[in-house]
Amino acid sequence: MKRLHKIGLVSVGLLAITFVASACTASFCTTQDKSRILFAVEPGVSTYYDTEAEADAALASLPNTTSFKQQVEGSNVWRVVGKDVDGNFAMLDYKKGEYVKLTQLESIIKSAVTNGAYRPSDRYFAALDQKVLVEAYKTANVSLASANAEDVRHILSDYGYVKFNGFNDLWENYDAFNSQLIAELPLGVDECASASFVSAYKTALNSVANNNRSCITSIDGSYGSYGQFHSTVKLTGIGWGDAWTKGGAVIEGLIVFPVAWLVDQIAYSIAGGGAAGVDAINNAYQSGVPQLLSLLIVTLIVRLFIFAVSFKSTYSQQKMQQLQPELAKIQQKYPNSNTNQAQKQRLAEEQMKLYKKNKVNPLSSLLVLVIQFPVFIGVWGAMTGSAVLSTGAVLNLNLSTSIWNALTNTNGLPSNENGWWTALVLIILMSVAQFLAMKIPQWIAKRRTKKVARLGKNPAQTQQARTANIISYVMLIMIIVMGFTLPAAMGVYWLVGALITLTQSLLIQFFFNRKRKNK
Which residue, among 455, 454, 461, has the nearest Cα to 338 in the 3D structure? Predict the structure, then answer.
């Protein structure tokens, strides 16, 4: 039990270290990037129309009589602030052609009210949208007077981030708008957002900004799938030099950015590259096919790199597997090595002679781990940070969404509307592939030593085998647990990586068998 207890503690420690280390990779999102993401998640409460008649028709379709219209100041455009049957803010979903509840904003409001803050008036939210719209047009250097509803939507899509972004701080403009509204609205402080409401609002959206790290791209464009409307945001491409200014710089510069750059460039090429127009590239990205193919290619490149730099260690490990029958024979000579110190020493000496004779390093597996661990952390950072992987969906599963989040989103069942079935199949395939990659080499080694094992049992050998088996299963469970929590892209990476590892093991085993038969 003590041994199992130690193994459990070590496993938990490794898992904790992995999560902590992965969190140490720096976010590449700038303040403006975060502002764009926040506006995609919380774009306000207004839907815009060209004429008053269109606004009236929209009001007639809404079930709540507290919905209202007003003309946008300084233009001929009309705004509708909609409410659903339960009194929640609702906005027009242009893809569905119907008004839907603003889930993110209503969740923030509900949380703030539960914690003692009062709900700002509907007029406050409409007035805040007006402030943002005016500032967006000012930033775009375009006249609001000649705008139509479609223009408004485009300007807000490109410049609505000014709702949050300021010169020095993420919340500079938002705070300034609030201060102005307190002075301008008839009821002042009583009608506007209180300090407690603002605190709850910022806490919720800061969590969104910090959890969304998909800002790494080398190509200017629109990326992501944010908020309930799955909006994209405009991001500016960065270079390798920028990576060296992030975090600890070493992992970001040597691994995170190069891997994300490869994913980006390969997906861009598959989507049509420079010869294709912006719309064609965006349409291709929405299907998720270029991203998936790019991910497969990059996984193969990374795994080949790991294999190349750790070939000697991997080869040594496989030779140790080939030596299992001879090691078993030596262990049978010292059946009491687990209790008899003299036998234990002689057993160690003979094992070392065998290793030396066959030029095998028993510690080679440690070198493989030393190489794999930082690469894993860097790839994790790249998959999490890649802007192109956060765009579109493969069989309705966004590659930046964690498998756990996809599986817990059961709204679309039994259909695959939100990628539920895709996530389930992915985690099953990944788990099975990892299991086979781990167990097949062990089964081959066990088959070789089967005849030797019949000669008698060595308690030390049995205990070592049991301990190794437990560690293997603990590592497998760790990978599966992490597979649930990581982006779906990492699930694909682990699935393909396990298949490559399995193929590699079988090929090396085949090579050794041929070599032994030739001798």
Answer: 461
Report the C-alpha gap between 282 and 493 in whole angstroms. 24
User: What letter represents residue 55's amino acid?
Assistant: A
pTM check: above 0.70: yes
Measured between alpha carbons, how far is 255 from 322 in angstroms, rounded to an integer? 34
Neighbours of 437 (CB within 10 A): 20
Cα three-residue angle 84-90-95, rounded to 5 degrees: 120
3 state DSSP class of 321: helix
Distance CA(58)–CA(7), nearest Å, equals 63
pLDDT tens digits for range 271-282: 998 888 888 999
Q: How far apart are CA 391 and CA 487, in angstroms?
A: 13
Angle between the N-to-C axes of helices 289-309 and 257-270, in degrees from 0 to 180, rounded to the nearest 10? 140
User: CA–CA separation, 356 vs 333, rounded Å?
Assistant: 19
Sequence-distant contacts of 405-414: CB under 8 A, at least 24 apart: 406/488, 407/484
Residues 6+ apart with CB under 8 A from 48: 72, 77, 78, 79, 80, 149, 152, 153
User: Whose structure tokens read 């097949």?
Assistant: 440
Which pair of structure tokens corresponds to residue 29? 């999102």
Distances (CA, A) of 270 to 90, 227, 280, 290, 319: 38, 27, 11, 5, 41
Q: The tokens of 181 are what?
A: 């509204």
Cα–Cα distance between 333 and 346 in angstroms, integer? Answer: 10
Give the tokens for residue 519.
């001798």
Helix, strand and coil content of the chain, in percent to the nearest 5, comes to 65, 10, 25
Task: Decide: 50 and 108 in contact? Cβ < 8 Å.
Answer: no
pLDDT computed for residue 442 by the predictor:
74
Tens-place pLDDT, residues 296-319: 999 999 988 888 777 666 666 666
Q: Which of 401, 424, 417, 419 is nearest to 485 (CA)?
A: 401
pLDDT value of position 486: 85
Two tokens, residue 376? 């894993």
Kindly list the distances between the CA atom of residue 337 and the CA atoms of 344, 355, 458, 464, 469, in Å, as whole numbers in the listed order.
4, 19, 8, 12, 20
Q: Burial of 44 by CB count in 10 Å (0-12 exposed, 13-18 middle, 19+ buried)? A: buried
Rounded to a whole number of angstroms, the distance between the first and last alpha carbons of the chain is: 45
